[in-house]
Amino acid sequence: MKSNSNLAVLRVFAKEGSGFDIVSAGELFRALKEGADPKKVVFSGVGKKKEEIESALKAGILMFNIESEQELTFLDEVAGGLGKRAPISLRVNPDVDPKTHPYISTGMRKSKFGIDIKRSMEIYKKALSLSHLEVIGVDCHIGSQLTSVLPFVDALSRVREYLDRVLVGYLRKEGANVRYLDLGGGLGIRYKDEEPPQPDEYAAGLIRGLEGLDVTLILEPGRVIVGNAGILITEVLYLKENDEKKFVVVDGGMNDLIRPALYGSYQAIRPVVERAADTIVADVVGPICESSDFFAKDREIPRPQPGDARGYERRGLWFYDGIEL
Ligand SMILES: *Cc1c(COP(=O)(O)O)cnc(C)c1O
Asked: What domains can you pick out in the chain, each with its CATH number?
C-alpha cells in the first residue's frame, strides 16, 4: 500500500486478484473499499494501535505480521476482547545487509523492524501459549530498492535454515499449522543507471531457495509494480539566479514527492514540451519553506521558462520515477 494507495490503482489490483500489505486501519479501509479480499490482506508495521487491530480482526484479514513481543501479547488481549483468534506470523530479522539506502534497510539487527531471528523461537513458544493467537506463518522483509538478488537469496537461506528447524522441529510438532512464508518486497527499479534484476531472475533465486518447503509463498512487491508507472507534472514558476547558483522554482514540492528531500535520491526531470534550448545547471526547488524542499541539485537541464507545463491539470498526482516520457 505504501508504494501507491490511490483508490483507482487499488481497484485495478483488487480486480487482478492481488492482496495488500497494510500498516494502518486507513490503508485497510482503502483496500476493502476497492474490493480487496480480506483473506489476502496482511498487516505489517511496528505501531499497530488497538482500534486498528480490532478493525483488522473484524474484517478477517489473513494475518498479522508481528514485530515485537509486546505487540504479540497485546494482540492476544485485543483478540480475546473480541472473542476471536488472531492469525499471526512473526516478522523475523535475518540480519542481512540489503546494500541499499540506510533509510530503506529494514532487516538488519539495529533496525526498528522485526524480531531478531535468534530470539524468535522463544517468541513463537510464547505465541503458542497464548490462546487468542493462531501461529500460521513466518515473515521477513529486508529492505527496498534492492539492485541485486544476492541479499534476497541470503535472507531466504537464513530464514530457510530457521524454518526447517522451527517448522519441522518444533512448531508443527506442537500442532501449529504453519503454512505461509511471507518474503516481503524490495525489488529495485531503474531511476538513473541502476541495473536491478528482472522479476524472473528474482523469482528464480527464490524458487531455488524454496525447494522442498511445503508452504504458501507470499510476496509484497510495491515499488517494482508502480514506481515507474507514475509521473508528477509541475509548473515552472520562476527562474532565480544569484552569483553562486541558479534555481528553477516549481509549484510542486517535497509534500508531493519526498524522495529527494528524504534520501537525496535521484529523480529524472524532463521538460513536458521539448523545444530547442540551451541548458543550464540549476537546483530545481519547490515553494515550501524548508531548504530540503528540492527535486534536484546542480542538475543540467534544458533552460525552462516560467509557465512551462501550465495547464496540465493532473499536476500533483504522482511523480515520475525515472520514466521515459
Ligand atoms: C515497503 C515494504 C514492502 C514493499 O517494498 P518495495 O520495495 O516497494 O517492494 C513490502 N513489505 C513491507 C513490510 C514493507 O515495509
From this structure: 7-227 (3.20.20.10), 230-320 (2.40.37.10)
